[in-house]
Amino acid sequence: MRYLLTLIIGLCNLFSVYADELRCVYMLRLDDEIGSSTWRYTREALDEAEKEGADMLLVHLNTYGGSVVHADSIRTALMRFPRPVVAFVDNNAASAGALIALACDSVYMCSGSSMGAATVVNGNDGSAMPDKYQSYMRAMMRATAESHGKIAESDSALRWRRNPVIAEAMVDSRVEVDGLIDSTRVLTFTPEEAIKWGYADGKAESVDEVLSALNYDNNYAVIEYHPTWMDHLIGFLTNPAVQAFLIMVIVGGIYMEMHSPGVGFPSAAAIIAACLYFLPIYITGIASSWIILLFVAGFILVVLEMFVVPGFGVTGISGIVCISLALIFGLIENYTFSITYASSSSLWLSLGIFFAGLILAVVAIWYLTSSHGPKWVRRHTDLMTELRNSDGFIGVDMQPVRYVGHEGVAVTDMRPAGKVEINGETLDAVAVMGFIHAGTRVKVTKYENAQIYVKEA
């Protein structure tokens, strides 16, 4: 019995030591287009990896690329992660994916995989962007390669661990590397080439083989990051195309409400779009509280302009400026009250999304209020050529100012609003002073705020 008890205690101590030595590997899969969703997944995964006390972060890569801006953010986050970061290229690490792989401390590639082709292209037709964009990408790739430092060779000479010129060759076909590529092609590595030139540390066919090559043996536990439905939703709403669409609805809704106050649907659409626009970037910490307050203040000023302060003046202009600034600054990553914290790339991206949404709003407004637009929209605006009611009366047309100075007859009693007949047309009108009885001769004195004003002739 004593020997059995001793054996049990020994086994418990053995399992305890084994558990203490068990190393934690946190794995992040980037198997989709690089964009706002993958950037959010990366931030969430890095936070979770630190909370779990992970010994290593493993990035499982299989992507053809995507947004350079979000790839740059992912690159920076991986380079600043305090633990070793290893990339496993499982088939593809193209374009933005190559930049992410290059940011990792070690890279392992499976058979038949490829890495490179990081030229910046137009998202519409796939053509190469102007050299201004290629220059920025070349510098980013070069800086990422240089961040891995130099190593000593056998003759004590120092060489780059990852040659920065090779990184540039992945972007620009004009860059030539002796023995690797001439000046007519953009560089893309196979696994053997990447290992030979120091851009990969070995080949592996699975995550287990990667960890075995890193001497983890079987003494590890892999924790994988799995996005929630909320992550997917926030990633969708923070997509630049979706944000431009929401800006279109916000601007278009406010414009339509200003031209037909009291309708309700345009303002409701604008409010819903604003919630979908600001809530995700507020949750993710991109937008500060003051930016949302700035938008609310602008919206209140616009409402005051519509219902309290008639005419288009300081109140309306101030409201539009506040709303525009809130929409632009809300997209700038880590933006605070000081504009010095905003990078030029994030500012230009924000301006691009804002003006794209603005152009879409102008096009949508033109279509909806034109003769080609749906009647249910035009019926509630002041932009129709004619507005007819069930009694057959014709409302104010597009040139009501032509009636100023003309005389007519009051068709109904005007107390003070009523109807008048001018040149054979029956129109809505308002008496300037006092009441006017039906049958009285009247004269049009002015046209203001889409309304004809008359007095006794």
Question: Descriptors for this entry?
Answer:
457 residues; disordered N terminus; 45% helix; alpha/beta; elongated
What does this structure look like?
There is one protein chain. The protein is α/β, with parallel strands linked by helices. It contains 15 helices and 15 strands. Strands 1, 2, 3, 4, 5, 8, 9 and 10 form an 8-stranded mixed sheet that branches. A 5-stranded mixed β-barrel has the order 11-12-13-15-14. It is elongated and about 110 Å long. The N terminus is likely disordered.
Compact description:
This protein is an alpha/beta fold and 457 residues long. The chain has 15 helices and 15 strands.
Structure summary, number of beta strands: 15
Largest beta sheet, briefly?
Answer: 8 strands, mixed
> Roughly what is the average pLDDT, rounded to an integer?
82
What level of helicity do the residues show? 40-55%
Number of helices: 15
The residue ranges in which pLDDT falls below 50 over 5 or more consecutive positions are 1-20, 382-398
Give the topology, please.
Blueprint: H1 2-21, E1 23-30, H2 36-52, E2 56-63, H3 68-80, E3 85-94, H4 96-103, E4 106-109, E5 114-116, H5 131-146, E6 150-152, E7 158-160, H6 164-169, E8 188-189, H7 191-196, E9 202-203, H8 207-213, E10 220-224, H9 229-237, H10 240-259, H11 265-283, H12 289-307, H13 314-329, H14 344-369, H15 375-378, E11 407-410, E12 417-422, E13 425-431, E14 441-448, E15 451-456
Parallel strand pairs: 1-2, 1-10, 2-3, 3-4, 3-5, 4-9, 13-15
Antiparallel strand pairs: 5-8, 6-7, 11-12, 11-14, 12-13, 14-15
